[in-house]
């Protein structure tokens, strides 16, 4: 992403190569699709950081760079001689960004971590179990990529500070803290208050029928949101009695009844095919959309 924004990015790899080189289909050896997608605009440099001759190379790059980023455990970087304090001696204006599993002021500081581990620790798996009954990981690298996005804006904020003060700084982006903040923004629930007003969790997200709804011939995503949209949905569904149901009167009332309301939507949607619902709901400006198969997404007319 920083490369997309115009940065000259130099990626340092060990001689055995980034492990993502081996993930998925590849036309050429060690050039897997994930590696290509994530490294399309970077320059490449091979260095064995454990060998002494790598040290002057890294220090020379540090001296002329704005940002140094890594995703190794800080303890390992310090042992190699590339910790923040060492590199700051070479370049006082350096923005040093470290992504690792856990914040360095906590008891898990030196533990290794990957996306799957953090999904379990930051309640993604527990939420999946609560809503589907299955202990599963989200089937995308949600932790890795969210941490990557966080690194981007954190680095840009540090560069803005440097432009103002001339000083670099250490930026720490730990996975567990980042993903806990990500998921608990809505799921902290009653624990937001002191004393607590109730348990954690956002009821709308945890409603059993908050899912793609089964139609007569497939599935559809539907989300009536405003007062008007809820009333119009039930009118379109042929349920004028529900269009005046007090449970949909306003946002505050709906918030107390989401589980029931989503269950009613699910019952209505089964009665007609997907194309019918897409046409009728779009005409009424009610948010809706198809469930795109993975292979069809690149052909989506909007994309």
Describe the structure.
The chain has helices spanning 33-38, 54-63, 74-80, 84-90, 115-121, 124-132, 142-165, 175-187, 203-206, 227-236, 240-243, 251-255, 258-269, 274-283, and strands at 9-13, 42-46, 67-70, 95-100, 169-174, 213-214, 219-222, 288-290. It is α/β, with parallel strands linked by helices. The strands form three sheets. The protein has a three-stranded parallel sheet with strand order 3-4-5, with helices on both faces. The protein has a three-stranded antiparallel sheet with strand order 6-7-8, with helices on one face. Strands 1-2 form a two-stranded parallel ribbon. Helix 7 (142-165) packs across helix 8. The longest helix is centred in the middle third of the chain and has 24 residues, at 142-165. The protein is elongated, with a radius of gyration of 25 Å.
User: Oligomeric state of the chains?
Assistant: single chain
Give the radius of gyration: 25 Å
Shape verdict: elongated
- Overall helicity: 40-55%
**Could you report the average pLDDT, rounded to the nearest whole number?**
96
Largest sheet: 3 strands, parallel
Q: Provide the low-confidence segments as ranges.
A: none
